[in-house]
Every structure is written in structure tokens, then in C-alpha cells.
Amino acid sequence: MVLAPNNTETQVTEFIMMCFPGMQDTQHWLSIVLAPLLILALGANFVLLFTIWQETSLHEPMYYLLAILSVLDVILCLTVIPKVLVIFWFNMKPISFVGCFLQMFIMNTFLPMESSTFLVMAYDRYVAVCHPLHYPSIITEQFVINAAIFIVFRNLLATLPTPVLAARLNYCASNMIESCICANISVAKLSCGDIHLNKLYQFVSVWCLLGSDLVLILLSYCFILRAVIHQQSGGTVTKALSTCGSHVILILFFYTILLVFIFTNKAGKKIPSEVPILLNVLHHLIPPALNPIVYGVRTQEIKQGIIKLIKHPG
């Protein structure tokens, strides 16, 4: 912190991440779990990406969407977890003003991007099951390109105001963030100004983006279930349904942890403050670690591609 020109108040130039305020002496033990999960998440996603890149049989829209999901998972992991581990291992709690809001921007943008990717994947499965004959003409490489552009610009435009609104606040008091992550409200509440607009915009943007995605995903699967009930499942539909199971598992990983985090955070003092902090960290780690494993285990084409690369790495 540095003195302001009028010498009457201090101006914050960096923040101190306290992580788990009530567990300062024992929080480093969490790294025993977090570090292996980070290695697993990065390793599994890189293996999946390399397999899709190398195996020509996987050069299909469905696998391209899965590759987009893996890229988002890797970025989210690297944005949050290494800093948390550095705090645990070396007690390096400071983060620069710019670094904090950059982390906030990435988290607020890429998490909704992941949600939008699940939505596009749900539409892909809807077309595969409900309109299998039209699938090759609807779900094309151009569709994936258009979907990627939609995912990026929709969420970038909607979430960019969140860190901008937080960065424009006047931080002249405490710089201690009671979290492991530069979350919007955790940072904004340290300012000397009014943060009602910050809270309102975050509430509206989160529920408009993630809420609409979840509703449309559920609607897609309602149509899929109706189609399965009212038709004899041929070979194409059976194959499409097999990947639906993997997709549903990934959605459960993503939205369940997110919803639990939101509700525990709203519960306030009824729940220990460490619980939402831990859930926030795990939400950037568990889905990225499990997503590629689920698809690798449940999707025969990916499993065969990985085995092929192991046996013939050249």
C-alpha cells in the first residue's frame, strides 16, 4: 500500500489473499489433495487434446467441442490453482492490483464459456438423437466455428463489465481478501465506495448466462427423452445416446458444485466461511480433472485413440 498524494488515506496497490482465515496453520495440508488433482487435470486434458489432434477418426464436430471444453478447463486451472498452491507452500499471499483483476476477468469470462460449451454439446446430442439423418448437414465444422465465436463473444461482452466495475472502485482501506481467489464481491467489498451496482450486475449476468444455459440444456434433454420413448432406437441413435450419458455426468459435475457454492455462500454465517472458499477452489479443479476422464472411459472412440497413441506414439 502506498500513501495517496493528500496523505490522508492509503491507496491499495496490491491485495493479500488470506485463503482460509480460520485455518492459517493447517491450510497447507490441503495441497496434498490439490497438487495431485492439478497434475491429473492438466495431464488428462493434454492427453485428450493430443489424442483428438493426432487421431484423424476423432476429427468430428463432437470431439472438437470436447477439445474446446478441455482448453477452457486448462485455462481455468492455471488461472487459480497454482496461485493457491504458492500461498500454501511459500506463504506468498500478495497479488498485484492488475493481477487480481486479470484473474477476476478470466474466471468471470471462462466459467460462463464452459457453461455455453455444455449448451452447444447438448444441442449436438439433441440433433444426433432427434434428427440423426440431418446430423451431418447440421453439425458441421462450420457449425463448430460459429459456436466457438458465439461462446467467446456472448460471454466476453456479458462478463467484461464485472471486473471493470470492480476495478473502478476506490480501494483505500483494507487489502485483505478472505479467500484464495480474486472473486468479484470478495474484492469489491474491500473498497470505500458503494458496491450495490457490482452486486446487481453480477447477480443478473450470472443468472442470465448460466441460468439460461441450464434451462436450455434441460430442455434439450427433455426432447431427447421424448424422442427415445417414442421411437425404436436404431444403431445411430444408440451410439448418440451412449455419449449423452457422458455429457450428463459432466453437466452434473459443473452445475452441482456451482449451485452448492452459490447456496452456501448465500447462507452466510450459518455455514463456516471456509466451506464456500473451499468449494470455489474445487470448482476450478474437480470438473477439469474429471471431464476428460469421463469421456475417455465412456467413449469408445477416444479410448481407442488413446490406446493407439500409447502403442504407436510415433
Write the layout of secondary structure elements.
Elements: E1 2-3, E2 10-11, E3 14-17, H1 31-54, H2 61-90, E4 94-96, H3 97-130, H4 135-138, H5 141-159, H6 161-167, E5 176-177, H7 184-188, H8 196-229, H9 235-266, H10 274-283, H11 286-298, H12 300-311
Parallel strand pairs: 3-5
Antiparallel strand pairs: 1-2, 3-4
Give a quick rundown of the structure:
By secondary structure, the chain is mostly helical. It has helices spanning about 30-55, 60-90, 95-130, 135-140, 140-160, 160-165, 185-190, 195-230, 235-265, 275-285, 285-300, 300-310, and strands spanning about 1-5, 10, 15, 95, 175.
List keywords for this structure.
globular; three-stranded mixed sheet; about 325 residues; two-stranded antiparallel ribbon; mainly alpha; Rhopdopsin 7-helix transmembrane proteins
Sheet bearing the most strands, described? Answer: 3 strands, mixed
CATH topology-level fold name: Rhopdopsin 7-helix transmembrane proteins
Give the name of the CATH superfamily: Rhodopsin 7-helix transmembrane proteins
How many domain regions? 1
Second-tier CATH architecture: Up-down Bundle
How many beta-strand segments? 5
